[in-house]
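Worked Example 4.2. Consider the chain below.
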Amino acid sequence: MKKLLLLVAISAITGVNGQIDRSVRPKAAAAPAINIKNSEVFKTANGITVVLSENHKLPRVSFNMVMGASPMIEGSKAGLNQLMGQLLLSGTAARSKDVLDKEIDYMGATLNADGSSLYLSCLTKHLEKSLGIMQDVLMNPTFPESEFARIKKQAESGLLAAKSSPDEMAGNAERKINFPNHPNSDVMNEASLAAITRDDIVANFKQIFTPDGAYLVIVGDINKEQASKMVDQYFGSWKGTAVYKQDYSSLFKNKGNRVIFVNKPGAVQSVINVTFPVAVKPGEKDQLALNVLNSIFGGGAFGSRLMQNLREDKAYTYGCYSDLQVTRDGSWLSASGSFRNDVSDSAITQLLYEFNRIAEGYVTEDELNLAKSVMAGGFARSLESPQTIARFALNIIRNNLESDYYQNYLKRLEAITKEDVLNMAQKYFTNGFNIIVVGNEAVLDKIKVFDADGKIEKLDAFGNEVKDVKKATISADELLTNYVNAVTLTNSPKALAKKMKKIKSISKETSITIPGAPMTLKLTEVNVAPNKEAMKLEAQGMVFQSSYFDGTKGAEKNMQTGEKTMTDAEIAAKKKSPGFFPEMAYKTSGMVYELKGIETINNKDYYVLATNDGESQRFDYYDVTTYMKYKTNSISQQGGESAEITVMYDDYREVNGLMIPYKLVQVIGEMSLEGTVKEVLFNSKIDDSLFK
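Applying the procedure from the previous section yields the following structure tokens:
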């Protein structure tokens, strides 16, 4: 009854004072005071700055050793530090990789490493044992040659996958263009990976991992006395070189818009990235206002300007966003999305329009308040993690920030005005843009108008300048003849015909591994003269995929998509093509083919032969000296999207008078498969069930 009377009284009061005007946004409350517990900070005799954030809610502690060295320009050995980080946990003088992994797993601990840090998380009761392992890794890594070779092989597969990812290709171009002659522009490629040696790994580790200037962030169930004792016990004897320091603050500035193109044959969409460097370091005055600007512009998801214009209004894309990255060694802003080829020029026009529009001063109070609310909410939620508090303390030390920088964060955020946002836009959005387009060459004529001098710069998948393809000195037919002669070890049409007449069938079994996957796949391939063929992919008695052509009909079976019979056009093409070496029948099968020229890969030259059978486009690469096939890129259209498959061939061996590649790497999208041929049989008995 009392509650009811209270509600009546409140209603009466509001009735007397009039109705609330809901068209007027209520004034925001004053930014609340932020009470952030200060972390303990102390320094060791050998140069480590220790940041301790106590939290005794759970019996767990984490130790994060962060190196203080500046990144180094790797140049011709780009990827060196990345490989070193991957190898750091490959074993020590006292522990092999297997032993190391087992000891960590047994304790339920976590031990991670990268090129500039080593991280440990463990239960309090296992702290000393875990710290002993961390100490061992930090002071006694061995970088075994076998693990080095394995990591390099994995990296090779990753590079192939990178060529299938337009977003990754755009990111590589962004780094190269925004930061020339800078560590940010170091992008691993095939040549730089091949140049890296184990000795390089060891030397790089000694240069980067040194106690001088290092930071040790400790979070969890431990007090200062315990922390000080353990730091001294496990890391006090650590010695190293003087910390490497380098200032990379000077930035490249455009004199106008630049258009940079990365070719992705067959692409039905263009990834467009409008980007530029910004001269802002962490904690500087402009950073917070720039963050607000970015949120309004394209960093605030569906409510942002880019999404409203290019998705909601124009329907050019499913998503278009902006991103602001502020780091100690270089900062940049970008606006990007994937757009249909036919609207690539229109999308660039609208992206530039939005950059100009916000620089002209059009920002509403609603936009400003929404951006600040979202940022304030994210900041408040981050305070729930004890790791955040330690990270704040580390940022203050590393970036020379005011001691109350984070306590006053919300006050500074609330104080930002529309004029501040306008000033940021006019300061940073008017120096010219790097317009990166990854896509089909069909869009080139459309996009060159956006370049200040009308000259488009072309880069490869790793951000390197694309040189003009060298002209071939032989014809396409001569190349095909030389290839067939090379793989059949013949030198005349008569000798070739005689050898091929003796081959009735070829059966091949290949073991397929997927990096990180628990099982090995078995691939069986059979070719029967003149043009019968079958394939089966299986594991543990289960068939995942199969296909066949019996001379008159064929089909493909897939565990996920079911069975698909061959079309009349596919059957007609198969009837014209010999199964052993299809290149022998390009002229008679209706295949459209063209020798594009000579391309250099890892300092070796390869003939590039383009083919098109009406279903897919293919590019085959042949060694200019041996004529052996190096790789194949196949591009087809599936559901309005381009699907790309790359196959690499290696380790050719003579088997019954034919050269067979025993090593294969296949990349489908971002998935890599590694194959090793186990058996090749000629004229063996063939199971007829394969052709059903």
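The first strand starts at residue 40 and ends at 43. The chain has a mean pLDDT of 88. Compare this with Example 4.1 before moving on.
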